[in-house]
Write a structure and sequence with these properties.
80% helix; 9 helices; globular; 254 residues
Length: 254
């Protein structure tokens, strides 16, 4: 029990530290915009975990913290991109979508409504990704694109967990979506590993992510009806934290 509490607390602390201060520069904006993608999937995962009564990592508290962080960061990004019409327009679209989703997301989970909420979250993800890409394309340094790719890995790790939880819950999803996200993660991982400016610290972290993802991959596509949601949640959160650290290293790269 004590170990579960510590793991859950460390996950919440990780979320809180993902974005607190105002946006300081372009790389910081790319990073934080990318985190919005991840948060959209983490919230769907938490909603599903509450629905199937999985308490690992305290999904109810994590969901509320993620919701607050999404709102705060969105407002910061809208202010930062006031001179970037494409990104700002997309972020305003995100805000409109978020306004319609947030209340349902924080309500008592309902299996009948979960499929529609999943579709709405996916629309939110698409707009958040477009906004992130619009910000990243304004970067004149090579790290802008790699920050975007690295940051998206955080989203994919949470998306995989979200899809798995929906599968456990019996909500209309199939393994093709899981397989697609796994393929996207693997392709991006290779791009990150081949980035010529990777430091030894980044190389070591990416090697660990690769190992953890192999474990996650086996669990995620298993045909067994014996589901292991807590292990999936733990693995996805571990990869998310690792990729958050890697992304920060890219942000700080000179």
């Amino acid at each position: 029990m004590k170990r579960k509490f510590i793991v859950g607390l460390s996950t919440i602390v990780c979320i809180l530290t993902l974005s607190q201060a105002e946006i300081s520069n372009l790389n910081d904006a790319i990073n934080k915009a990318g985190k919005q993608r991840m948060l959209s999937q983490r919230m769907m995962k938490d909603y599903s975990m509450i629905g199937i009564k999985i308490k690992f990592g305290n999904p109810k508290e994590e969901l509320q913290k993620s919701s607050d962080l999404f709102t705060q960061t969105l407002d910061d990004l809208i202010k930062f991109t006031k001179d970037n019409k494409e990104a700002n327009t997309e972020l305003l679209k995100v805000k409109k979508l978020w306004k319609g989703i947030q209340k349902d997301l924080l309500a008592t989970p309902n299996k009948e409504k979960a499929a529609e909420l999943y579709k709405s979250i996916d629309q939110l993800l698409v707009s958040a990704h477009k906004a992130t890409t619009a910000i990243a394309t304004t970067s004149k340094v090579t790290t802008g694109e790699i920050i975007n790719i690295s940051g998206r890995q955080r989203m994919l790790s949470q998306r995989l967990a979200s899809l798995y939880m929906l599968k456990v819950w019996g909500v209309a999803t199939d393994d093709s979506a899981l397989k697609k996200s796994m393929d996207e993660f693997s392709i991006a991982q290779k791009k990150l590993e081949s980035f010529p400016k990777n430091s030894d610290e980044i190389k070591k972290a990416l090697a660990q992510v690769k190992k953890d993802f192999m474990f996650f991959e086996v669990l995620g596509v298993s045909k067994s009806k014996k589901y292991i949601p807590s292990l999936i949640a733990r693995s996805s959160n571990k990869i998310t934290k690792q990729m958050n650290d890697v992304t920060k290293l890219y942000v700080d790269m000179k």
